[in-house]
Here is the input.
Amino acid sequence: MISEELKKIIKAGDDFLISSHINPDGDAIGGMLAIKWLLNKLNKRYIIVVDSTPSEKFKYLADFEKITIYSEYLKIGFNIKNLLTVDVPNLERLEKVNKLLPKDIKVINIDHHESNSNFGDINFIDLKACSCTEIIYDLINLFGMPLDKDVAEYIYTGLVIDTGRFRFSNTTTRAFEVAAKLSEAGARISFIAEWLYHTNSIETLKGLGILLDSLDINMNGRMAFVHFDNKYLKSEDGSKVDTEGFVNYPLSIENIKVVAFLQETEKGRVKVSLRSKNNNINVNNIAAIFGGGGHAKAAGCRINGTIADVKNLLLQEISKKIGIRD
Here is the structure.
């Protein structure tokens, strides 16, 4: 459960910068907006800033437009005193948002990654939570605030994204209990499912086809790579693709144990998303070798090199983990 210490610090503080990792997912976005909701109720001053543009897939969330994209010309209007991070394993993952931080800032770190480096002045890391929004749900309850539709949808979005629609191994009994409470508070369960998982742009569906065409099976059918190169990502169609959930398609192949989804976001720089469906293969440990992190079955990192270079590096490390019994 959430700590009274965290409640006291948030209640006593003001002038908050809320942020999350680069390319924020549904848990990060829902978590930041849920914290925003709480700070509004407490009459606190705040701003939400992230390094990269959030996916339009989450525009159904109230006040989505209040998420500000970092710019060197950004005017905040107050002196930041507190940084509140959501779903961030280390400060480096904030990328350029770090430039906004004064030296004397107090850092409040809310996360559920096993790779978290405990970088905050106060660290609330709950490895049992299925999502960061589950932690924030407990925080809001600690303040005794009744949920409304908006915050219920923030929290539910994080829940449904990070449990893979209540499919992943982190789906606990409590996740269902919280989801039920959020539904009672007004979260549009059916609408969110339809919008997130059954509504796609033409570019996204075409992109999925292109990605699956890149499928490369290794290690006697136990390891799969898929990738987008920089040329495609910079193309008109590629720039409109929503890749949320793409990594799960090759993971669904029978006998596949590990998948690496590679995106050459810039020449010589590759974003890596790793997934595992084998309890003996901890992809968080593999990502950590390259300065990344995450969870045992879902992690990521960024590696310098070409797509081919990165494949070779990952094969070297993953081959050490995949044995005869895997």
In short: The chain is about 35% helix and 20% strand. The first strand starts at residue 16 and ends at 20. The mean pLDDT is 94. The radius of gyration is 20 Å.
